[in-house]
Write a structure and sequence with these properties.
The protein is an alpha+beta fold. 24% of the residues lie in helices and 20% in strands. It is built from 9 helices and 9 strands. Strands 6-5-8-9-7 form a 5-stranded antiparallel beta sheet. Strands 1-2 form a two-stranded parallel sheet. Strand 3 and strand 4 form a beta hairpin.
Length: 312
């Protein structure tokens, strides 16, 4: 092998269109869905060595299948990606990041064994400072969103129709809004206390009180929420089109510069048309030094994720 042209390998999962192969002009692309039968199912069992339930799943299976099978046993993995129609193998190869990462670590942190065959910032940091698995004041999901007029189609549907006008007026006035989305899980045992817990958690945030919105949805509906958007885009013929994601790890000490340099001086000033823009806050102690992912050497860091619709 010529050392100047290293061989690259990249898993392709169910959510990765074929034109993504253009990103790997000199390497291999693995189609995870071709490695076996997706419908074979996940295996949920009690592990005496771990002291809790575990889930054995093949790389070609989708996360939605894992969710449905584990819930039959009253359990579920604690860390997810926002989109569930991805293969397990394809996602784990790219760490697996979402709003649960600050508390439970990325998806690969929650893998105990892998057999490889063949080959807003202050508010967000405050919210993720409570991340113990048994802490009532801890949230289960924290995500930052960038709201602009140009990407309104990607976020406005979350809010009630009656709120659309005042939200768009606010975005027009300020050009850029920072929104924090959080989730708190509850069950029959905690149903009576969840509202008080949320009030306590959110009371000192620097938000405008009249612009706080909430929804009460089922657990599976929350985890599978992107599926609704996918079906809508498929109906418009807009799902299987190029939609490159840019993911960057940013240390806490550099997030202000990232906001100024990227969000304000590039996205806004250069009139770049973007889709969803997400900012996930994360705690370094939920990651493992043995992971292949290289992360900033600070206790708190961010994943800046930009869906590019058009670069100009």
């Amino acid at each position: 092998m010529n050392p100047l042209f290293p061989s690259l390998s990249q898993p392709e999962d169910a959510g990765t269109p074929s034109w993504d192969k253009l990103w790997l002009t000199m390497g291999l692309l693995w189609d995870m869905t071709s490695l076996g039968n997706r419908w074979r199912g996940a295996t949920v069992f009690w592990s005496w060595s771990l002291g809790h339930y575990a889930n054995r799943v093949d790389c070609q299976q989708l996360w939605i299948d894992v969710l449905e099978e584990t819930l039959k046993h009253g359990v579920a993995p604690v860390s997810w990606t926002d989109y569930l129609y991805l293969t397990v193998g394809g996602t784990l190869s790219n760490v697996g990041i979402s709003g649960q990462t600050f508390r439970y670590g990325p998806q690969i942190r929650n893998v105990y064994e892998m057999d490889v065959i063949t080959a807003f910032t202050m508010d967000q940091e405050r919210l993720i400072s409570h991340h113990g698995r048994d802490q009532d004041e801890a949230l289960d999901y924290v995500e930052g969103l960038l709201l602009m007029r140009r990407n309104a189609d990607g976020w406005i549907s979350f809010f009630s129709l009656s709120d659309h006008q005042r939200l768009m007026s606010l975005v027009t006035e300020h050009e850029l809004l920072y929104c924090i989305e959080v989730a708190k899980y509850y069950d029959g045992r905690t149903r009576r206390t969840v509202d008080k817990d949320l009030e306590k958690i959110l009371k000192n945030l620097s938000h405008v009180p009249e612009f706080m919105f909430e929804k009460d949805v089922a657990y599976v509906d929350f985890l599978n929420r992107v599926r609704v958007e996918e079906l809508g885009l498929r109906g418009q013929g807009l799902w299987k089109v190029p939609h490159p994601w840019l993911h960057l790890f940013v240390p806490k000490s550099g997030i202000a510069d990232f906001n100024l340099g990227v969000f304000k001086n590039i996205v806004l000033k250069k009139n770049i048309t973007t889709g969803t823009v997400l900012i996930f806050p994360m705690n370094k102690n939920k990651w493992d030094d043995r992971m292949s992912a290289v992360i900033p050497d600070e206790d708190v860091f961010y994943a800046g994720c930009i869906l590019a619709i058009k670069w100009v």
